[in-house]
Amino acid sequence: MIDGIIYKFKQKYSWLHDMLVNMPSDFLVHWNIRHYQPQETVCEQGRIPEYFYIVIEGEFKVQHTLDDGHLVIVAYLYPRELISDIEIALDRPYVGSVIASTKGTVLALKTDVYRRWIAEDRNFLLFLNAQLSKKLYTAAQKSIDHMSMSLRHRLIRYLYKQLEHFDFNEHVAFITSFSRDDIALEWGVTVRSINRILKDLKDRRIIFVKKNQIICNEWSRYLIEKELEELENK
Q1: Packing angle, helices 151-163 and 180-187, rounded to 10
Q2: Phi and psi for 233 in degrees, rounded to 5?
Q3: In a designed cystine with 52, which of 36, 114, 186, 193 is the match (CB 3.0 to 4.6 A)?
Q4: What is the 3-state secondary structure (H, E, C) of the chain?
Q5: What CA–CA distance (Å, rounded) separates 27 from 93?
């Protein structure tokens, strides 16, 4: 039954097919499929991992709780990304909890089966190495940005990445959900600081804000791109 569902997932997602193409067939029956609702926990900070996970659908956030109770969002995870790979390799507990941001689906494999798999599958080891390298690179880039960029610079860059490839010939406006709380936690700043910048952009009619949404048009993209160029050429 489970291998039939795995087969359907592999047919639907070519990247998953490539990831599992050399997995021994007798291991396929060990996968579990888990579905999560927003705010449900996949794994908890401080616990030793019992499963290895592959994100299939949805968005998940990795959040760390500091000693004083404050939360810091460490990363966001999307389809194709892995959970528990670092902790299992180091035999260490989770550094943060993984929480579903949206409805999501993951594949779960018990830790002992995962270890046997990677011992027999060189193809997956190469994929795993690439994923670990990507995580290290992303963490280094995030650290550099945090030290070298102003909050306004980071926010302008964030907005431009959202708009960069949007086709305004098909849609008059670009609308994106924007959680000030999540961005503040991820960047280690206050919501008030983010609101101050958004208010300035709104007052200058660069963006339009409606509740937890940011709305932009083609002129918005032009102005944001222009400011980003000025910030990065200082």
Answers
A1: 120
A2: -105, 10
A3: 114
A4: CHHHHHHHHHHHCHHHHHHHCCCCHHHHCCCEEEEECCCCEEECCCCCCCEEEEEEECCEEEEEECCCCCEEEEEEECCCCEECHHHHHHCCCCCCEEEECCCEEEEEEEHHHHHHHHHHCHHHHHHHHHHHHHHHHHHHHHHHHHHHCCHHHHHHHHHHHHHCCCCCCCCCCEEEECCHHHHHHHHCCCHHHHHHHHHHHHHCCCCEEECCEEEECHHHHHHHHHHHHHHHCC
A5: 25
| pLDDT for the residue numbered 1 | 52
Strands 51-57 and 82-83, by their bridges, are antiparallel
CA distance 99 to 41: 5
Q: How far is the C-alpha of 214 from the C-alpha of 178, rounded, in Å?
A: 7
Give the tens place of pLDDT for each residue, 150-178: 889 989 988 888 888 888 988 889 998 88
Token pair listed for 227: 């400011």
Residue given tokens 């689906």 in the structure block = 105
Residue keyed to tokens 């193409």: 21
First to last CA, the chain: 59
Task: Give the rounded distance of the alpha carbon of 159 from its chain centre.
Answer: 16
Q: Give the Cα separation of 96 and 142 in Å (integer).
A: 17
Instruction: State pLDDT tens for residues 12-28.
Output: 999 999 999 999 888 98
